[in-house]
Each structure stands twice: as structure tokens, then as C-alpha cells.
Amino acid sequence: MSPSIRVRPRREIRATRRPRAHRCWDHLIAAPLWPMHGTNLGTLLRTCDAVGACLAAPRFRWVDEAIARGNTLRRPGCVHRTGDPVRWLRAEKDRGAYIVGVELADEAIRLADLPTAGRRTVMVLGHEATGIPPEALDLLDTAVEIPMLGTGHSLNVAVAGSLVLYKLAGLV
Q1: pLDDT in tens, the chain (172 residues)
Q2: Domains of the chain: residue spans and CATH
Q3: For the chain, what is the radius of gyration of the CA atoms?
Q4: SS3 state at 40
């Protein structure tokens, strides 16, 4: 006879979670700075909430609407605006943040080898078709690659960002 699986009730799950939201900008920031599809932003915001991260998004007119439409949380998520993406990344690096880019690059480390974020870390996601622009690649401290066995060359921004956020947060 196989062991039975006990599903935890919502009350028990809530008791193990944070009693309030994380402090803003304190440790982990997801930065989809060149988004192509708005639906990915809402999904990524949900992951940010799950791992205690903030979302940094560019000031495109359609971004606010996309985040609002995709946000399935019962409260506003932790979202900040960046202005010029490269300038914002440079300022983060100057403040001492560790900059991790999710990119297919010769020097990229595999997702399994990515260490947990030990200090303020910005995870940068590029455009789904063109990736992270060259001027921003120069600001990365490391690049991480998500291994794939299928025929596609990359995952969408929300899926890739979610996988890397969970790894950086030390939850996998």
C-alpha cells in the first residue's frame, strides 16, 4: 500500500508564511528591463511575491496596464520604475549590487551552479527575441543559462525569471 499524501490546509500554510510583505529593495530584484510581452510581467510579479523580491520595470506606457492585468495577487505587488535601463543598472552596480543576467553566453554558468544571493542582487532579463543589449552585458557580474533539451533556444521571460529567482532566493 502506498503512503497517503496529506494536503496542508490554507490556515496551516498561512502560518508558515511571512506575516507581512518584505522590505522594499532589500535583497533581490527582478529586472525585466526590455520586455516584449506584457503578460510576462504579471506572472513575474507573482513569483517576486513568492520569493520576497521586488520587480523593477521600465517606464513604458503599457507596462502599468500589463502588470495590473497580470497581477493575480490580492494586493499591489512591489513594483518600481527604472527609467533608462542601462543607466539604472550602472547605478545599481555602483551601489554594490551583484548583477546577474539570464542570457545564453559563452561565459554563462548553469542554473544549478548559481549560488544563493548573499547580498543585494539584481536579476536582469532581456528582450525575448534579442536578449540583453551589449551595453548592458558589460555591466553583468555573471550570466546564467538555463539548460534545455528541447528544440527551442530559450524560455519566455516569466518562466526563465521565475526559475532563476527561486534559485537566487535559495528556495530550490
Answers
A1: 567 888 888 777 667 755 555 556 568 999 999 887 677 888 888 898 889 899 898 877 777 777 666 566 656 667 788 889 999 999 999 999 999 999 988 999 999 999 999 999 999 999 888 899 999 999 999 999 999 998 887 888 899 999 999 999 999 8
A2: 21-168 (3.40.1280.10)
A3: 17
A4: helix
